[in-house]
Known about the structure:
Number of helices: 18
Number of domains: 2
Shape: globular
Strand content: 5-15%
Bound molecules: pyridoxal-5'-phosphate
Structural class: alpha/beta
Distance between the termini: 36 Å
Amino acid sequence: MEQTKIFLNESDIPRQWYNLAADLPTPMLPPLGPDGNPISPDMLAPVFPMNLIEQEVSQDRWIDIPGEILDLLYRWRPAPLRRARYLEKYLDTPARIYFKDESTSPPGSHKPNTAVAQAWYNKQFGIERLTTETGAGQWGSALAFACQLVGLECKVFMVRISFDQKPFRKMMMNTWGANCVASPSNETNAGRKILSEMPDTPGSLGIAISEAIEQAVTDPAGKTRYALGSVLNHVLLHQTIIGLEAKKQMKMVGEKPDIVIGCAGGGSNFAGLSFPFVADKINGDEIKIIPVEPTACPTMTRAPFVYDFGDTACTTPLLAMHSLGHSFVPPPIHAGGLRYHGMAPLICQAIVEGLLEPRAYHQLQSYEAAITWSRTEGFIPAPETSQAIAAVIDEAKKAKEEGKEKVILFCYSGHGLMDLVGYDKYLSGQLTDYELPDEEMNKFLAAIKDLPKAEMRKSGKW
Ligand SMILES: *Cc1c(COP(=O)(O)O)cnc(C)c1O
């Protein structure tokens, strides 16, 4: 029988996370400290608790999920796998389209998968307060939710433009007991410096990260740490529960994906769904794996593979990644979660290896895809998720042209019910496409030309 919804029993929830670092054919380049040498794990100790640092540097393929974290996750996991049969019918495609529905969590996205894990490990380590940054507010609301569940204080620096334009996520954070301020703020040296130079700045994720890290490391009691919602190895690790569940669910209906798709801002939902399938590809399966980004912030498709800082104030270690430069201030497109200047180093190494085929979409095509989706499937996707849907529709149309029964699996990273202003602007014709001009990109890249060079190592198998 053809199923539209595929559910896993709670007893079948994955009990381990999958660590792609253990299987990459060429190892990742190490993060570097200010002196240009690889950092040691204890250098991260003021920022993260040691139990998470251990996960960050782990080379173990499988890492056990503590039972208490599973208990937190049961609120919404296992998440449903759905088949987009109404969209398939509308497109008249022979492709079968499955999506892992991460919009069913309380905050409405995949982000709490790592938020609850990070909050739990911090609590275990004796930490009392977490700081973080948030763009459109999805990560901030996920961490606020998670901190409430485990009993931690939560402080969120929210990018100014979103703070002003998208007040509803801020209200969610307050509802879950967190304190949310606009970034740049007057509360940190990093914030005050930017405000004195650019009083009208819309802010950026990079600036907000600097502020959150500064507040964590300057707590005189040493009981504050910082939490990051994407990019880092341990964050991607926690998200692999998405792909591990999806794999079991695909098996239940006797399917294997030919194509795996996810939108990528810092890369966590994409990695979460795709990494268990990247493992299959490394082991010989033929799978096309596509991370999707906006043309306005073309990190994977146009930016060089370099060593760069994760934040604007240059406080983080140097990470080997595709980067538009840490001073990049992205244009205010509506896919707020996809405006980061860098990309997860694990994903970047997989791109260098040739295991992934990144792609960029314009804002208008993404919204058009979101409207098609909303009017066929019914659910209204987040603007970030819409980028993945645009790629799904393209692949489904291609399958039709070629007359091939492709199986497409993608990550439905979140719902768009807090993002309706963007839909309103699209429907009233106020949105435009934006492609980052070369001159603009080169200006930001010039600022990182003196940083250490990142060598592109690959096995040559893909
Ligand atoms: C934050 C977010 C993203 C982008 O972040 P990743 O770390 O790349 O997954 C994508 N979709 C939704 C719904 C988000 O909230």
